[in-house]
Amino acid sequence: MQNTLLLPEAADADPCRPDRTLALTRGVTRLFLDLGLAPLCEFRLANGRRADVAGIDRKGRLIIAEVKSCRADFEVDQKWPDYRDYCDQFYFAVDTDFPRDLLPGDEGLIIADEYGGAIARTAEDRPLNAARRKAVTLRFARQAAARSFAVAIDS
Q: Looking at the Swiss-Prot or TrEMBL record, what is one Pfam family this protein matches (predicted)?
C-alpha cells in the first residue's frame, strides 16, 4: 500500500490552500486600510453573493476585491461579474505567482501577500447610482455594526 500522507513540502506546493486565500485576504485588507478605506471581509450583497473584501472610502465610494488563490479558483468560480453592480470599482486580488493572463484586462488588479498589496492596474470607475449607493452603504454599515457585537442580522 502506498503512503498517502501529504508531506509539508507537498502541501506548500498547492496554491489553492485555504490558508493562502486567507493570507491574500489579509493583505488586501491591509492595502485597503493603507488607502484610507474601511474594509469588510465576506460582505454579503443583496443578490446573495459574498464579496471577499469590500471597502468604503470617506466619500462613500465602494470598492470590491475578489481574491483568487489559483487558476482553479478562478476557473471554477465565475460569479465575479455579479459583484460589479454593487461597487464603484472592482479588483481581482492575486499573488505574484498567479497566471495573470487568465484575468480580464478591463478589471482592476491587486498583487498581494499576507503583509499587504499593491494596485497593479487601476479599476475602471463605474459610479453607482444614488439609490444603489444608499442601499449598499446601509447594508455595509449594518453588517459592520453587527460584527462589532458578534451578532447576526438579516440585512
A: MmcB-like
On whether residue 151 sits in a domain, the answer given is no
| Structural domain of 44 | 15-146
Rounded CA separation 91/105 (Å): 11
As for how many domains the chain has, the answer is: 1
Among the residue ranges 16-20, 44-48, 75-79, 96-100, the one predicted with the least confidence is 16-20
User: Within a 10 A sphere around the Cβ of 7, how many other Cβ atoms?
Assistant: 9
Angle subtended at Cα 86 by Cα 133 and Cα 37, rounded to the nearest 5 degrees: 75
Residues 111 and 127 sit within 8 Å (Cβ to Cβ): no
Q: What is the pTM of this model?
A: 0.86
Is residue 120 in some structural domain?
yes
